[in-house]
Each structure stands twice: as C-alpha cells, then as structure tokens.
Amino acid sequence: MNVTISEETAKGIISRCEKIESWTASVKAEMNAVLGGVGTAQDQQKKSKAISKADKIQELKMKFHK
Questions:
Q1: What DSSP assignment string belongs to the chain?
Q2: pTM for this predicted structure
Q3: Of 20, 38, 41, 50, which has the most beta carbons under 10 Å away?
C-alpha cells in the first residue's frame, strides 16, 4: 500500500510523535516515583532534563516550521 502525504503533514506527525514520547517519559517517571523504586529520584531528574530538552527542541521546530 503506497500512501502519499505532504511534507507539512509528515513534519506535523513527527512533531506530535515527539511530544507523545515526551509525555510518556514524564508519566513513566511519575509512576516510578509512586512505586518508590530504587534510584527513582535520579531517574526522574534525568528524564526531566530529557523532557525539558525535548520541549525546547519541539518549541524551536515549531518556530521554524511555520
């Protein structure tokens, strides 16, 4: 099956996927904190930094892809 989509649509889908990945990491960090796993605080800090970085990248992409 061959589906053709525009470049703009493809960029939009990629952008949404990246945002979903960011939210997923945040939810996982919260759930690990609730469960009180070993090293949760460190993991949460690392994920928070990754989420912040992903959000900044997302914001920059939105500025340049308009």
A1: ------HHHHHHHHHHHHHHHHHHHHHHHHHHHHHT-TTHHHHHHHHHHHHHHHHHHHHHHHHH--
A2: 0.46
A3: 50
